[in-house]
Amino acid sequence: MAKKVTRRQGGAPTISxxxxxxxxxxxxxxxxINGEARVRSETREAxxxxxxxxxxxxxxxxxxxxxASQIRIGLLYSNPSAAYLSAFLVGSLDSASRSNIxxxxxxxxxxxxxxxxxxxxxxxxxxxxxxxxxxxxxxPAILSVLAENPVPAVAVATAREEGPVSSVGIDxxxxxEAMTRHLVDLGHRRIGIILGSPDLSASARRLEGYRAxxxxxxxxxxxxxxxPGLFTYRSGLEAAERLLDLAEPPTAIFASNDDMxxxxxxxxxxxxxDVPGDLTVCGFDDTTIATTVWPELTTVHQxxxxxxxxxxxxxxxxxxxxxxxxxxxxxxxxxxxALVRRKSDAAPRRPGRRRRPRA
Length: 359
What we know:
alpha/beta, 434 Repressor (Amino-terminal Domain), Rossmann fold, six-stranded parallel sheet, six-stranded mixed sheet, 12 strands, LacI/GalR-like_sensor, DNA binding, DNA-binding, transcription regulation
């Protein structure tokens, strides 16, 4: 039964008045006015009846603004790297503002139940699509919810080449291979690597690229030179200590992100080692931390801001296609990466000889 509504005296009816008369939300009224398909026929009829009864006339300027802001995108995050997350949010917000998209940012705890709960709540709340930056890009719980509720979604920085949702990323394998090959070309033969989170597909691909470069150079991969990490600064400290405690420590450490590389530099300094005089350290991502530590990090530039912008644009296409009733199959976009050389790498020192850091 329609709800009784008392309109304010002397004022023109508002969208809230229509919503109250029809017994629906203001968002539903807005969807009916803008001709969206995702409204049940009986609901649409109730809204039209309320509009007629109240003689509601949408303000053209307000209607245009409301129609432009109808696309609502949820961005779920749970990233241990503040520098990565900052770059990602800046890119997402920039693209969303230019496209008049309402971006709702939600934090997820690293817990399957909580991840599924947040994703389900956003979808049930009328979200048009979801963006999943790492580590949620590979979350089995969220992907399971999306399989049950076919809402458009884009996973960012996943290394999965196929899947039910679209994705944006770089070629993690070849990027890690290029960095490892760079270290080999400098003359390093004992190259340690600090891995990323084991539940992320990108971590595995970076390890594969590292192994491939060593194999191509005729070098054996030593398990002792592979240290676990979690993409956090603290895990980088522990991994660097482990590598440098070896009887024959590496002359170079390649960390799977800049936070862990910065931690490796801190461990080297604490031990009285010169970087890169005694130890070369390289990272991955090219976040702000790469240029705020000393020496500045040689790293793989991953275009985080561009990746998040591309995710918003890809999701916008998918939402529009869905509203038009046309198919929009999952797509995978690969953006370019680059090896950025700064001050933290150099050739290994020859025994008995002191080396000057590269100018």
